[in-house]
Amino acid sequence: MARSPSPIKQTDVTRALRGAVAAGVEIARVEIDCRTGSIVILTSRTPSAPAAPYDEWKAESNAR
């Protein structure tokens, strides 16, 4: 009996991981479900938003 083709290819996983890394996300684990064709990337932390210039100044100068 022949196997049915997998709905997920290695290139799909590679694209998903490269996209997450490019977004600045630290990857903790990847879950792949071949039956449903889903790729789930679990992160170890949430990406932080870039700070506004005012927030950077406030943090550097300890302003109140």
Structure description:
This protein is of the alpha+beta class. It has one domain. The protein contains 2 helices and 2 strands; from the N terminus they run αββα. It has a two-stranded antiparallel sheet with strand order 1-2. It starts with 9 loop residues before the first helix and ends with a helix.
Keywords:
two-stranded antiparallel ribbon, alpha+beta, 2 helices, 64 residues
Topology diagram in text:
Layout: H1 10-22, E1 27-33, E2 38-43, H2 53-61
Antiparallel strand pairs: 1-2
Summary?
With 64 residues, this protein is of the alpha+beta class. It is 34% helix and 20% strand. β1 (27-33) and β2 (38-43) form a beta hairpin.
Q: Which oligomeric state applies? A: single chain
Structural class: alpha+beta
Per DSSP E runs of 2 or more residues, the count of β-strands stands at 2
The averaged pLDDT comes out at: 83
Through-space gap between termini: 72 Å
Spatial sequence of strands, sheet with the most strands: 1-2
Query: Strand-residue fraction?
Result: 15-25%
Number of helices: 2
User: What sort of overall outline do the alpha carbons produce when their principal axes are compared?
Assistant: rod-shaped
